[in-house]
Amino acid sequence: MGTFKPMLLTTLKGYDRSQFIKDVTAGIIVAIIALPLSIALALASGVGPEAGIFTAIVAGFVISALGGSAVQIAGPTAAFATIVAGIVAKSGTDGLAAATILAGIILVIMGICHFGSLIKFIPFTITTGFTAGIAVTIVIGQLKDFCGLTYPEGVKPIETMEKLEVFIQNISTLNIHAVIVGLVSLAVLIIAPYFAKKIPGSLIAVIVGILMVRFLPLKVNTIGDLYTISNRLPSFHLPSMSFEMIRTALPDAFTIAVLAAIESLLSCVVADGMINSKHRSNTELIAQGAGNMASAFFGGIPATGAIARTAANIKNGGRTPIAGMVHSITLVLVLVVLMPFAGMIPMPTIAAILFIVAYNMCQWRPFVRLVKTAPKSDIAVLVITFILTIVFDLVVAIEIGMLLACLLFIKRMSDETSIRGWTYADDDSEEVNSQLRVLPREISVYEINGPLFFGAADSIEQIICHSKTKCLILRMRGVPALDSTAMNSLIDLWKKCKEDNITIIFSHVNEQPMNALNKAGFVEMAGKENFCSNIEESLERAEKLIQI
After folding, report:
1. CA–CA dist 84, 42 (Å, integer)
2. Whole-structure pTM over 0.85, yes or no?
3. Counting runs of H as helices and runs of E as strands, what totals does the chain give?
4. What is the pLDDT of residues 176-191, one digit of tens each?
5. Cβ(101)–Cβ(257) below 8 Å
6. Is 224 exposed, middle or buried (0-12, 13-18, 19+ CB in 10 A)?
7. Phi, psi (rounded to 5 degrees) for 478
8. Using an 8 Å Cβ cutoff, are 483 and 510 in contact?
9. 504-542, pLDDT tens digit by residue?
10. Which residues contact 257 (CB under 8 A, 6 or more apart)?
11. How many Å apart are CA 79 and CA 130, to the nearest integer?
12. Residues 6+ apart with CB under 8 A from 269
């Protein structure tokens, strides 16, 4: 298959012992970074802590082995947390598995159909808007654990605004011990990168949090208090699938697929800039699809390329997919040996880690820059997508955001289309000079500029022929494209002119419009002799016709 060329096969040519050592070192370091993040993101997604590690192990290995980037590190990411939590609450783990498998299939199809380059057509305003929105939903979702609140039995809010409402209603149950642990963990996460550049701040925060709860008289919920911890290896599980489940899961699957494609390819682009390479986008999409399907079959959640972990891999010497595969194998060993200790991690520490994740992904600087500098229509798309992501969900935000962006694009393109008729000056007019061409009154000339498509097809109605007109020249050198709606308007104009005994002559029709006119049979209808290569030829043709 020409589309599918895993980077692993390319990078292993000339592979030596020195690079192997660098890849192994980078893989181990990235695994240490991924461990607390995978647990935190799994909990934010409404599943058990081991599901996050399963995802990093299975999807991470498959995507590295099959992917189109030499350095991509894949696993659970914050972008999926709110989507996954909603699916789990609504359809359970089988519903999540179904959506993830379908998303994987969609990603594979996207790769086979060479859709890798089409992702760039999703506007920056939409990706910035929903990314910032996701960051806010993560923060709101973690307020309960950070503050140690206790909710009444049976109260399990799902939607972001419900979580915020219930949080405010139960703020009186605030646990000051939890807040202390959360604030200390947050301070460690902020300060640690300045002092311990080789050790992930999240790992230091986890250790500090465990020590505080273990040796200080602090009553704080830990992961072990709320979840059953297991160090079992991921095992194959085929979810029960039905037509109704597939139908229900499809919208979520589409959202997961689009988000996975955007985030993974963005990560690839960032990685390319860091190591001066070029990824294979379609291969990467196929690998992402295979990785997500494998993750679902082994108890994981949706996965995609993680920019921060990929950057860490590069900075520590990783240059081939071996590093990503070592990262997964290392996590297997960590799962078996250290997973029981994960139960000691305080929930406020997990919340603090996710606060930092949300901050790092929110892109507030690009958001503010867009608000200050972008056109009002782009700002509207940005803000609406941002608000819809928080108030409703990502599916609604992307759908409405894309719809608005498309409508605004159509409006902009239609504004670019103009039809202007040549004016006639009387002999005694001051405008008459040697540069003006003298034309008979029987000839009307209109210049069309811009694309002729459904959004601008009504512009053709601006063409008006006078009672003396015998020839109408349409100068189309400024028309790059023409669609069927505009074609229909041209046919209507031609029919009207034919009734009035007016001949239409086309001047300088570009390649795409000419192909469209030919395919529709319009060239034969209007007469091949009435299609001229330039305005001079068109005027000569018109002058001959009015003399007949």
Report:
1. 9
2. no
3. 21, 7
4. 999 999 999 999 999 9
5. no
6. middle
7. -95, 15
8. no
9. 999 999 999 999 999 999 999 999 999 999 999 999 999
10. 102, 103, 104, 106, 107, 110, 289
11. 9
12. 279
